Amino acid sequence: DQQVKQNSPSLSVQEGRISILNCDYTNSMFDYFLWYKKYPAEGPTFLISISSIKDKNEDGRFTVFLNKSAKHLSLHIVPSQPGDSAVYFCAASLNQAGTALIFGKGTTLSVSS
Amino acid sequence: DSGVTQTPKHLITATGQRVTLRCSPRSGDLSVYWYQQSLDQGLQFLIQYYNGEERAKGNILERFSAQQFPDLHSELNLSSLELGDSALYFCASSVDGRGRNEQFFGPGTRLTVL
What we know:
By secondary structure, chain A is mainly beta. Chain A contains no helices and eleven strands. Chain A has strands at 4-5, 10-14, 19-25, 32-38, 45-51, 56-59, 62-67, 72-77, 86-93, 102-103, 107-112. Chain B is globular, with a radius of gyration of 13 Å. Chain B starts with a strand and ends with a strand.
């Protein structure tokens, strides 16, 4: 049973527009949510995170929104750039020792110029 | 560059064989994680070590084992390999192994079992 779901396998956006990537989770005990970006032939790289006590976190062009009642989070990229084209993974974790990241299956973002 | 190194980058072997994947964490990180990414699958957590001791176990098969050495590098041993074990294996490290801290991923080892 998948605890973290990314229901859109792919998303295509034009350069300069907003990209919105969505993620749903089932475990209300998760304390932290993280987004990772992955280019081909590379390992995932951390992008942005949010604690479960917040509903928004912003870092430059990237903003993550958390809706705990809906068990939903989203990553907004504004403006989108061609270099943002990658696979984006949503992940969740518990704030305790001995915890791993629970990943979604990823969304492939393609930004066209 | 995340600071996490993994060797080898590619590994091709036959069914029934045994292989060892190696990971060196970022300087100062005490915790190491292993993940498997199969085709069309997200990253599946296998096992975590913290300062030499096993801390958490995920969906790791009994044919797989791992350890973390005193110098903090880690090895993932895969034995009696099957075709379905073909995947990307990622190692990640973090400072203290708690969920609030981001994990830094290595470039991965692509294992192909023929």
